[in-house]
Amino acid sequence: MNRARVRKVRDEMVHGALQQQIEHQHQYLLQQAQQKQREQAARQQHIPEHLDEADHLHEQILEAENDENIDPAEQHQQQQRQIMLQELYERNVRLELRKNWRFSSGAASSLVVPPAQLYWERACLICTESPANFYNRGCGHVCLCSACAVNCVLHKIATCILCRAPVSGIYAFVR
């Protein structure tokens, strides 16, 4: 009887410990979900401010362009401002999309590599040792280093190694 009682007490302790672990895990996941909701709500409040400001400035520029009494220098300045505002708007949208993607990826956020880094730091697809600094005229893929580009020309390879599109020449890519 004593053994049965010891077993029962031990099983109750194990069951209680498991219950506590499950409760702690549940609370942790609940806190993580609430934190994500707060961050998302903060981002949603932050986005319209930029969009409203850009829209307001864009409307002002359009109103000013409609005036016929504007001299060419002022009109040129307004066009430059409009271009800058458009670039600012696009940059803000890209930034917000990148932030949303990083926050939504959760644990994979440590693996995030900016698109520019992926594009500019690509290695040659043939030797994989040197940076790719030659592009194929036709498809535009930057996928060859100087040594491999010379070999492709010498061997008269007329298709892109990436997409098999016909290539009319291989040119150096200036960064």
UniProtKB/TrEMBL annotation:
Its source organism is Heterodera trifolii
UniProt-listed PROSITE patterns: ZF_RING_2
Taxonomy, top ranks, is: Eukaryota, Metazoa, Ecdysozoa, Nematoda, Chromadorea
Q: What is this protein called?
A: RING-type domain-containing protein
Describe the location of the RING-type domain by residue ranges.
124-164
- Name the domain of life: Eukaryota
A GO molecular-function descriptor: zinc ion binding
| UniProt KW keywords | Metal-binding, Zinc, Zinc-finger
Keyword Protein biosynthesis assigned to the entry: answer is: no
